[in-house]
């Protein structure tokens, strides 16, 4: 079954829902087979859906093993689009919770840019870039920055 994302904002709605549900297939349904990703976590870059599937599966498996859920909130979203191409840039806050109690454990905010193309009537992410500001004194990512 193919999911159609006829509006660009449906891609973000799907992203947040799939992360919360830890649904790998739903999450990946918004990505192009030839996706190119620059990620903050461990991998400099990932090319192709198979590599992205491995990373997402590992992330969601760890969340399930820890009995955690993650809520995603998009801030300061800017979208530009034409008939065939779109891009989104925004800040994304990920907040981890204990699954049973909904007790907040931690949060972080990343900067994201998504590049999308329209294929068979559906918007698909072809490029994703996440980043963090770097503390100039320590050289470490600033995970608690807020937009």
TrEMBL record:
Source organism lineage? Bacteria, Bacillati, Bacillota, Bacilli, Bacillales
InterPro entries in the record: NTF2-like_dom_sf, SnoaL-like, Steroid_delta5-4_isomerase
Please give the organism. Chryseomicrobium palamuruense
CDD domains the UniProt entry points to: NTF2_like (cd00531)
Query: Can you give the residue ranges of the SnoaL-like domain?
Result: 8-134
The protein depicted here goes by the name YybH family protein
The superkingdom listed in its UniProt entry is Bacteria
């Amino acid at each position: 079954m193919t999911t159609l994302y006829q509006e660009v904002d449906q891609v973000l709605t799907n992203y947040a829902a799939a992360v919360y549900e830890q649904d790998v297939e739903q999450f990946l349904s918004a990505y192009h087979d030839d996706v190119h990703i620059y990620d903050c976590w461990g991998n400099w870059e990932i090319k192709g859906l198979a590599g992205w599937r491995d990373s997402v599966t590992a992330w969601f498996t760890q969340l399930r093993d820890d009995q955690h859920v993650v809520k995603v909130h998009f801030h300061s979203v800017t979208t530009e689009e034409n008939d065939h191409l779109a891009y989104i840039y925004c800040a994304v806050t990920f907040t981890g919770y204990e699954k049973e109690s909904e007790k907040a454990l931690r949060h972080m905010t990343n900067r994201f840019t998504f590049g999308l193309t329209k294929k068979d009537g559906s918007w698909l992410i072809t490029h994703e870039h996440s980043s963090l500001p770097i503390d100039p004194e320590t050289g470490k990512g600033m995970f608690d920055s807020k937009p």
